[in-house]
Amino acid sequence: MAEQRKDLISLVIPCYNEEEAIPLLYPELIKISKQMDYVDFEFIMVDNCSEDKTLELMRGLHKSDARVHYISFSRNFGKEASMYAGLKAAKGDYVTIMDADLQDPPSLLPEMYQAVTTEGYDCAATYRKDRKGEPLLRSKMADAFYRMMGRISSAHMKSGARDYRLMKRQMVEAVLALEENERFSKGIFGWVGFKTKWIPFENVERSAGTTKLPFWSAFTYALRGIVSFSTVPLAVSSMTGIVCCLAAAVYAVYVIIKQLVTAEAVAGYPSLVCLILFIGGVQLLMIGVLGQYMAQIYLEIKNRPKYIIKETDAQEKAVSK
Ligand code: UDP
Ligand code: MG
């Protein structure tokens, strides 16, 4: 009897300057693939135009292990682009996104695979129970961000959620069908829906090297998330306009009555300065909010490729939308 084909799991691994982390990651991948010998694996490493030896390491791994594939970009297009390119290249029945720094423990894979194969889930996603080892301000701001997103958008996002998740092919296709350029994957995963099992784990510190996402990029990433998945800020700006108009009307009535009753002019210079500054500030802020949405429309409408591939083991099409 012909042997039944095993399921194929594709591991997509975005890498940027990870020459120190990859030598620690690969043995772990081998270990888990031996432990899970009931499935086949392919490892898709996406190099975000690293300045160190990351790409050379990938080429070497591909030579010695045919399951390792690599894609290398012509410049750094960001982690979102790496994930998209990896998902697109993945051939697996199930696809997982995993960071290169072992902050996404490979040891969770058996449990994740079990959730989608025997427990009726479409996706097994992970989140950190704590943010040990992360600066306090950053983790507090992240928490506040997820709480706010829960209120203002329809895409379900969990606080502490990682991009580390195992998805069925059907869900991967849904994620790929959302072709927006300004990507915010955490929102996209929530937006496409599907039954997701949330698996908690304790925060793990980076295996080697330093974080590639400094505070400022985390901040702009959060901003992109809000603009991508909610139009509430636009509604807030309209509401602020209405509140200002109402306040002005009430104040106008007060000024007229005071003038009629007491016949003395309302002394005004300091309050006028405050009001002008206040209204000016509010207007600029709201134009800024509008600008954020306009910027996103502008970037989407140009429809530039999300990434440009310079080199890959498969020598795929060079430019991909
Ligand atoms: N990464 C990437 N491109 C970038 C920045 C990061 O592919 O421009 C990868 C990085 O190599 C790592 C993952 O994204 O595998 C997460 O990055 P990092 O660990 O630096 O972020 P943190 O865990 O500190 O949020
Ligand atoms: Mg990390």
Describe the structure.
The protein has helices spanning 22-35, 54-64, 79-89, 109-117, 136-152, 169-177, 185-192, 215-229, 232-262, 269-302; strands at 7-15, 39-47, 68-73, 94-97, 123-128, 161-168, 196-201, 307-312, 319-320. The chain is of the alpha/beta class. The protein has 2 domains: 7-214 and 306-320, Spore Coat Polysaccharide Biosynthesis Protein SpsA, Chain A (Alpha-Beta Complex), CATH 3.90.550; 232-301. The chain is elongated and about 100 Å long. The model has no long low-confidence stretch (mean pLDDT 87). The chain binds uridine-5'-diphosphate and magnesium ion (MG). Residues 99, 101, 103, 206, 211 line the site of magnesium ion (MG).
In short, what is this structure?
The chain is α/β, with parallel strands linked by helices and 321 residues long.
Indicate the topology:
Elements: E1 7-15, H1 22-35, E2 39-47, H2 54-64, E3 68-73, H3 79-89, E4 94-97, H4 109-117, E5 123-128, H5 136-152, E6 161-168, H6 169-177, H7 185-192, E7 196-201, H8 215-229, H9 232-262, H10 269-302, E8 307-312, E9 319-320
Parallel strand pairs: 1-2, 1-4, 2-3, 5-7
Antiparallel strand pairs: 3-8, 4-6, 5-6, 8-9
Bound molecules: uridine-5'-diphosphate and magnesium ion.
Uridine-5'-diphosphate is lined by residues 14-16, 18, 48, 76, 78-79, 82, 99-101, 103, 206, 211-213.
What's the CATH first level of the largest domain? Alpha Beta
Q: How many helical elements?
A: 10
Relative helix content: 40-55%
Output the helix-strand order: EHEHEHEHEHEHHEHHHEE
Largest sheet composition: 9 strands, mixed
Structural class: alpha/beta
Instruction: Give the CA-CA distance, first to last residue.
Output: 43 Å
Name the CATH architecture of the largest domain: Alpha-Beta Complex
Bound molecules: uridine-5'-diphosphate, magnesium ion
Rounded average pLDDT:
87
Number of domains: 2
- Beta-strand percentage? 15-25%
The value of Rg in angstroms is 25 Å
Widest beta sheet: strand line-up: 7-5-6-4-1-2-3-8-9
Any idea of the CATH topology of the largest domain? Spore Coat Polysaccharide Biosynthesis Protein SpsA, Chain A
Low-confidence stretches: none
Oligomer designation:
single chain
Query: What name goes with the CATH superfamily of the largest domain?
Result: Spore Coat Polysaccharide Biosynthesis Protein SpsA, Chain A
The number of E-state strands comes to 9
Indicate the overall shape.
Answer: elongated
